[in-house]
Amino acid sequence: MNAHKAIDLPSSPVRDAAQGATWHSQIPDDKAMLRAAVELTRDISQARPGIYWPDLLASALVGYGALAGAILVAQPVLAVVLAVVSSLALYRALLFIHELSHIHKDALPGFRFGWNLLVGIPLLIPSFMYEGVHTQHHARTRYGTVEDPEYLPLALMKPWSLPVFALTAILLPPALLIRSAVLVPLGTVIPPLRTLVWERASALAINPQYRRRKPEGDFAHMVFWQELGCSAWAIAAIGASLAWGWRPLLIGLCVVSFTALLNQVRTLVAHLWENDGEAMTVTAQYLDSVNVPPPARFSGLWAPVGLRYHALHHLLPSMPYHSLAEAHRRLGAHLGAGSTYERASYPGLTPLLARLARSTMRTR
């Protein structure tokens, strides 16, 4: 596959932002591709506990071990190196939240609880912040519209919006600490605050117009326990810092801030962000999404847990992350060079960021 060719493919131009039409809405579904995606991957569609658990446990162990080292060592350079290692490992562990939003509840017994205990609650990003939200991003009639919690037409916005979008992620960890330690407990006695926090500050969403609906049934029960765990952890962390010093908490916040920045940069290139609000076909959604397969360098670091195959994920949302590379190989071989499938593959992070930056330049 020639990933470089996909950027300037004549049949898939980047539309001029000054034009009124949304080019995505004009793309019909490639039924052969959609059918092949399902038929060629049935035998690799099951989540394998023997892969999920070791991967999560190893990532968490390295992440927390390196974080402890960054806190304890006296040598500044070594502390920074350990902090970076911790960020990368915890980033991988954290992104299993994406898998939790798609896998069947019975596919990996205990994995949701284990992930929340190891990662979600300590990092103050419990799984309810993504579950029930991310699936709306995959809804056929919501993707790319104002009802999509995870979509902004970034390519059609001003150039300054890109660095602002990326850098605001640095503020996420202290904001989450305030949310769990202060706002959630206060919300138990101030109902309007509880409603505001739930609607506006309880989802990993980037669409400022998104308002989250009140949880119901078993999901509400799960939210209660996860919120309780996060609040108890956040209050304990602040209490310990008041008693024994702020260094561990501040280093931890810096590590998670870098992790959040990595994820925000990944988000910038997860899609082309060229839709201005119209409903799109499945094929259009695929072409507005991005694969960065091998031989792209370092994509496993900045887009781990299968997210280097984000466009393929939009074709097969329930496909476990460990099967995406094989699914990509099969589809590429079956559909061939020049196919619709190939057009969603790109050579790396830098070309994608440059493409997005060029798109914003056309909006001035």
What would the keywords be for this entry?
mainly alpha, 364 residues, disordered N terminus, 2 domains
- Helix content class: 40-55%
Strand runs, count = 0
Rg of Cα set: 21 Å
Which class of secondary structure composition applies to the elements?
Answer: mainly alpha
Q: What's the SSE pattern?
A: HHHHHHHHHHHHHHHH
Strand content: under 5%
Average pLDDT: 91
Largest sheet: none
Number of helices: 16
Count structural domains: 2
Short structural description:
This protein is mainly alpha-helical and 364 residues long. It folds into 2 domains: 4-46 and 271-361, no CATH class; 52-268, no CATH class.
Note down, in words, how this protein is organized:
- This protein has about 375 residues and is mostly helical.
- The chain folds into 2 domains: about 5-45 and about 270-360, no CATH class; about 50-270, no CATH class.
- About 55% of the residues lie in helices and about 0% in strands.
- The chain is built from 16 helices and no strands.
- It has helices at about 30-40, 50-70, 75-95, 95-100, 110-120, 135, 160-165, 170-185, 190-200, 215-245, 245-270, 280-285, 300, 310-315, 325-335, 350-360.
- Helix 8 crosses helix 10.
- About 35% of the residues are buried.
Secondary-structure map:
Elements: H1 31-39, H2 49-72, H3 76-94, H4 96-100, H5 111-120, H6 134-137, H7 161-167, H8 172-187, H9 191-201, H10 217-244, H11 247-268, H12 282-287, H13 299-302, H14 310-315, H15 324-335, H16 349-361
Helix pairs in contact: 2-3, 2-5, 2-11, 3-11, 7-11, 8-9, 8-10
